[in-house]
User: Fold these one by one.
Assistant:
Number 1:
Amino acid sequence: MTAAVVEQTFGPAIGQISQYVDILSTKGVTHGLIGPREADRIWDRHILNSAAVAGLVASEATVVDVGSGAGLPGIPLAVLRPDLRVTLLEPLLRRVNFLNEAVEALGLADRVTVVRSRAEEHHERYAVVLARAVAPLVKLVPWCAPLRSPTGTILALKGRSAAAELNTAEPALARTGLVAEVLTVRAHPDAEPATVVRLTSRR
Ligand SMILES: C[S@@+](CC[C@H](N)C(=O)[O-])C[C@H]1O[C@@H](n2cnc3c(N)ncnc32)[C@H](O)[C@@H]1O
């Protein structure tokens, strides 16, 4: 990853996303949300990987980031896309406290909301339901499907396991009437690719 890739990806928001990376590599590490060995790889592994979904999110959409942890992918997406309203959904108090502090420090509180809840116990609806590294699709689909508005989309950021997970989740998918596509997307032509499973209603 070069500085130019990050600068071209985030444009005028480069200062804000750099501030988030500083928070992740200091408080994120001391709060145990980011491994100390990961601190050097935050840009590639977390920021650009999260930003890769931006092209799949319609303008002015309402978005929920299920199991947001330290704010991934919800915070990079919100920084990159000021048109979005983003809810960071996270059940663990320690992480919720970190998220509230980060949202406040980054000046995002007017359009990014932190909610302490498990997905199964949250009853709002969103145009886009995002999840990264939360659970295999067989669990994630029943958690995320009820959070989707009738025409909404689920975007699950996955690694190489995507196709195998989809096979296992086939019965759960059939019950929800959702159809799946596996997409390869990038935040920038020179960034590492990310694999996204996109789930939408059968037409
Ligand atoms: C491995 S972390 C991933 C965090 C972040 N999405 C990322 O990519 O770094 C998984 C997160 O999912 C949260 N989680 C686990 N079960 C959940 C559930 N049922 N509903 C919502 N979040 C959940 C955990 O508390 C944890 O913060």
Note: The first strand starts at residue 62 and ends at 66.
Number 2:
Amino acid sequence: MDRREFIKNGCTACLSATIIGAVIPSCTSTRYISGTLGKDGLFVDVSEFLVREKGKTRYHPFIILRNDALQYPVCVYRFNDNEYSALWMQCTHQGTELQAAGDRLQCTAHGSEFDSKGFVRTGPADRSLRSFPVTVLNNQIFIDMRAI
Ligand code: FES
């Protein structure tokens, strides 16, 4: 591939990514909230996962809790009305903050990937993410963080 062809292909790829991101914003948007910090953990209203569009209701597959009191964010995946996972977004390889990408958490430092339950899918990390017990009661999700 010559230089001209390389630049042309690179520009086409960038333009395509931009257009796809603009056309399907609901797929690319990530919901960040702070939650409510209690003595033993974080509380999140179940309605934080709801998305109402054109008279239809759907759910964010995950939300990210960023709270000033926490060193790292917590990614909360929703599997159904009563099943969630809450994952500490610190890579178990060397501690880099993870990025959410759909049903995966990715590390930009060396490429590790974790699934929505916190299990390693791609190394070099070799340990699962720290996770927290989640309970649902009265339309509130409680993330028990006493183990931090
Ligand atoms: S710090 Fe995440 S893969 Fe190395």
Note: Residues 3-23 form the longest helix (21 residues).
Number 3:
Amino acid sequence: MSHSSPNDVIYQRPDDFDLEHERDERDVVFYQQLLRRFRPSRVLDLACGSGRVTLPLARVAAEQGFNIVGVDVEAQMLARARQKCADLDERVQHRLTLTQGDMRTWRSTEPFDLVLITCSSIAHLLTLDDRLAVWTQAFNHLLPGGRFVVDVTMPNLRVFAESLQTPPRALLELDTDSIDAQTGRRLVRYKATSFDPFEQRATIKFFYDRFDGDEHNHYLSDFESHVYFPDELRLLFVHTGFDVEAAWGDYSFRPPRSWSREIVMVGRRPASRGEDTQLERAS
Ligand SMILES: C[S@@+](CC[C@H](N)C(=O)[O-])C[C@H]1O[C@@H](n2cnc3c(N)ncnc32)[C@H](O)[C@@H]1O
């Protein structure tokens, strides 16, 4: 079993992670809508990170009366999530539990009716064994009728093809430029991608320039990621016992198209005959 790469330096800098994602609201709104649509009773958010998506979902949990558990392997990301959670209304705080764990092995004794892995976090699963372990754990955590939802970025074949030139090259793209409106802190990110077609592995070097007052910090965060193709996702669901209930091509519930930028897939654990498909609603 391989570990989440220690090279993911950005996860040791959760403030920078939040800043680089500050404009990523589409997925947050989408998952809030999804929870209102599915009306779950107990939600598991694996690889919840700094709580970027989890905390807004906890607000929906407080509104609708369900509980949510966030799990992440990186202590510093979780610490940031806890810090942000402490600023929330107590009703919201009570709905959320944050805990450290590896999504490949973490086990809960209590079942869920919705498991989420957001923001392409399944790309961290570099081996087939790891992917099967996570899909199987998700299945086992779910009650019959429960759902497992994942999202990934659609493979960008243009970028991958570029990296396969002879001699190989990785073009440097200016990727993100974010400014914290309160502190004026600015984070500029560049990335260079190489692709291994046999392993379906993208090796991405993220270069960061962080400007904080007079301070300028430059650092590199290596990122090894598995590249999923849509039918492979479908196969992972089917192979581990799920029915594929829905696939969308973006965070607006639109069907997948040849130009779609995302893949969001929903697997459903089949409901056994006569079995209740919902947890008792938490009071
Ligand atoms: C791209 S971030 C996404 C965080 C969060 N889901 C969001 O949407 O902002 C990926 C997260 O996956 C976590 N991660 C990577 N490998 C993991 C594993 N094996 N188990 C649990 N978390 C993992 C990292 O620590 C990081 O917080």
Note: The chain has a mean pLDDT of 92.
Number 4:
Amino acid sequence: MSLRVAVVGSGPAGIYTAEALVKQSADPVEVDVLERLPTPYGLVRYGVAPDHTSIKSIANYLRKVLEQPGIRFLGGVTLGAEVSVDDLLACYDAVVYCTGAMVDRKMGIPGEDLLGSVAATDFVNWYCGHPDVSPDKFELDSPEVAVIGVGNVAVDVVRVLAKTAEDLRATDVPADVLDRLADSQVKAIHMIGRRGPEHAKFTLKELRELGEVANADVCVRPDEAVVLGGDFPRQVKGNIDVLRSWSERVPAGRPRRLDVRFWLRPVEILGTTRVEGLRLERTRLSQDGRVVGTGEFETLPVGMVLRSVGYQSVPLPGVPFSTETMTVPNVAGRVRDREYVAGWLKRGPTGVIGTNKSDAAETVRTLLADAPSGAAGSIDDLLAERGVRPVTYDDWLAIETAEAELARTLDRGERVKLVGLEAMLAACGRTVT
Ligand SMILES: Cc1cc2nc3c(=O)[nH]c(=O)nc-3n(C[C@H](O)[C@H](O)[C@H](O)COP(=O)(O)OP(=O)(O)OC[C@H]3O[C@@H](n4cnc5c(N)ncnc54)[C@H](O)[C@@H]3O)c2cc1C
Ligand SMILES: NC(=O)c1ccc[n+]([C@@H]2O[C@H](COP(=O)([O-])OP(=O)(O)OC[C@H]3O[C@@H](n4cnc5c(N)ncnc54)[C@H](OP(=O)(O)O)[C@@H]3O)[C@@H](O)[C@H]2O)c1
């Protein structure tokens, strides 16, 4: 008898888990990868920036996993809607939760809910064409925008704001989003770090890329580029050197300006119904290394605040969840009898795509050592009884073909994303039920 495993979520963690199951098990394994969307690959499709085409090509590797014998893709099946934990435990010997981290963290300051105060999660979903966000959700009608946070997501968001629509024409950005980007009124982008250059979370390659955007002058204030002490890891030293070199640049009068700021924390987003400004307080580190305010304030006249301060997982119905770590408590991937976890839901929203491979391998080692069993029912019968017809891998290929066709029609790159469940399902001859 084969080991039957349900993997919930088809992002990198889910697909690497499926791959590890097939590779590591001495016995035959059948893996169903359940996904709430009609499309696989999680943040590789709906997170990785559209202009990072070489990173996006990881999808070609993930695709080969889904095409392996013994692995099935079941799209349009949400744990917590079409199926429950009990359903999965009845149909499979083991379940691995890989649902990532889909929502934004809050800053906890006044004004965070004003119109124009936008979570990076939403903004990224918008330019990536995620079906949860309509293409007309954002209008870039403010000349000044603040981006809070100095991690790699903030860098992505800033780069998309700084580039021209023409720069993004050959990418898969949805057509309506590209139109909005072409109409952008943004002239100044302020990227705000609450600590110093030596504490920034962005990586050197990504930072350097910002300095290469032809449409924008990148500015750093010399006093904010100063870093005391010197024994930093190579990456950090590289960041500091790049930022210091930018502080010596003379602006070339390009259409947009990017100000990378440090030692400032947001204290209030100003406005009555919509964002009219951002009040910041200068910071320093306390003796015990905490960020504290100095009592010196400044206000930026921005009409949009993009909060890029990290992603966060959400609890799955019926699955243990720690509201302290915002992850599923586990030991080497084991949650409870026959239940496992991998990826961002397991360890929190940090790490690049490749990090999920070793993470998934650990979970699969634990699972195979446990040799779980208990599958009795059939998921196909259960879904059929409920009138749920999953999106198959072949359906997904039809969506891909339609996206390539759209790109040809619009004379753009390899593909242009279809937006909305209706359009995606229509591409594979289906309708929304
Ligand atoms: C904006 C952004 C850009 C990034 N860019 C890069 C980059 O350029 N390079 C890099 O190496 N790393 C990048 N990363 C990090 C990388 O994307 C993550 O490490 C990785 O995607 C995490 O994998 P995951 O499978 O845990 O989660 P995800 O990729 O989020 O996958 C989770 C999947 O679960 C599905 N799901 C959620 N809930 C349910 C449910 N209830 N039922 C069924 N399915 C469900 C989701 O739809 C999704 O498909 C980026 C991250 C972000 C946020
Ligand atoms: N190209 C790539 O490889 C790529 C692209 C995108 C994402 N990723 C990866 O995906 C993961 C998530 O990235 P991320 O950028 O979302 O998270 P991140 O790396 O954790 O960065 C979050 C940023 O937000 C700041 N922040 C947090 N709370 C704040 C608050 N209340 N006020 C002001 N600032 C606050 C943090 O500052 P502090 O440090 O002071 O807390 C930090 O600068 C990372 O591992 C990243 O490397 C990789």
Note: The mean pLDDT is 97.
